[in-house]
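Lab channel / #folding
Pinned by the channel admin:
"Please post every new chain as: sequence first, then the structure tokens as a reply. Keep commentary short and put observations after the output so the thread stays searchable."

First post following the new format, from NK:
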Amino acid sequence: MKMKLFFMLLAGLLPVLLHAQDNPVPTPQWRPVYHFTPQKNWMNDPNGLIYLNGVYHLYYQHNPFENKWGHMSWGHATSKDLINWKHLPVAIPEIEGKDTTTWIFSGSAVWDKHNTSGFGKNGKGPVVAIYTGDQPKQKKESQFIAYSNDGGLTYTNYANNPVIDLRKGDFRDPSVIWLEDQQKWLMSVAHPGIQKIEFYSSANLKDWELLSEFDRQGDTRRMWECPSLTPFFVDGDPAKKKWLLMISSSSPGDGVGMQYFTGDFDGRTFTNDNHAATKLFVDYGRTFFAAIPFNHLPGDAKTMLGWLVPFETPTHPWRGQMSIARDLALKTTPEGIRLYQQPAAVLNAYLKKLSAAKTMLKRNITINNNELALSSAKSFNTNTNWIDATFTTGTAQDFGFKIAQQKDGNKVVAETVVGYNMARQELYITQVKDGKVVATLEKMAVKPVNNKIRLQVLFDKSSLEIFVNDGEKVLTTLLFPEKNATGFAAFAAEGDVQLDTLKVWNLDKIL
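Reply from TO:
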């Protein structure tokens, strides 16, 4: 999207993006294995996430020509397990006209089962993409649609685009779902600079009526982008229906992030459950952005993907990666209804296929003011570990894991610490060089539950996603370790901790 380039430029990051193209040094040591990356060139927001006939479709913001932002089009990949991806040709390329260029910015895709749009053929409903058409020469963003009758492989743009045109330069990211009770489509779309979400409805995906607005609540430090509004059953109870509104945010001086609201939607208006000043965050790291749920998942599952903003470090021949697929749930807590996230359950089937050599299981280990090596020269040493551990707190001031570790004998040359501090009740990520902490990358407040801390640590070459206490909170960041920094250990400092269970999977090669 245009504003992605805007905030990167103002943050002084544009020269780095250009460097990623001008100095193409291959960086295979940082290409994730079980997180999606394009084969080559730039990628940002996930778009049009949809499940069709047993296949997950991922469209994404893509520059087909260069390893930097520009020429925005919808790239395309498919998967049956959310781990192995088939790369496909560009699904919706930028539109070159006589007097203007239209870039294909972020949006969503739906299966128009009842052919409300009239675009279907042979009695079958089409797949319809709803996206923002950005026209830089006209300094305008408006909402376009395109349709596919070959299962989402190729699209034809609607002849009468745009379908919503307010003649504004900052109006984007439509997210569309089907409201079965009203037999209508619902769109959420953002006015980023004025921090406003608008809701529209349509019977045919072509003609849209403005329903209501939601603005300036929660985190208002940044512009608002990439909204999604999704119904949930709280605690899995059909009698307790709530709606989850997620919004991505960005600003030149304050990075990126995502917040959420829970509330009620009466078919026209979303009403926030909480006070307008309440701030609830989807992820507590600095890199998770533009996440949206898949449409049409079986069993009404709620699963999303997000983009991990690459920031300063150049990679080649690709740039940008997606998060792991995350299952979403709303749960009742003493503080109110809150969002919980877990690595998608469908991924468990993949983990079960891994051989015994790729799987580690340990139980009931006491670690007392030392570290427990978990990698060796031949195993769990490729920076592709998926860790699931439960600790019972003891006397240790700090405990957790050390990853991307490099040692010279007993001397620590480099490592990243994923630790929990008992006094501060805080998860933190620090970088260590030559035995000294040189940077604190991230930190997040979270309390033990019944004296236990569960950490799910997904480290994949350069991405690090940490789910705490069954997904009560999540923190995501990026790491770019040296090629030989691949060690891995559990640790406790200034006391002891009980490692109740430890499961580790090495996903260094895709099955």
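NK: Confidence is low (pLDDT under 50) at residues 1-21.
TO: also worth noting, Residues 354-506 form a domain with the Jelly Rolls fold (CATH 2.60.120.560).
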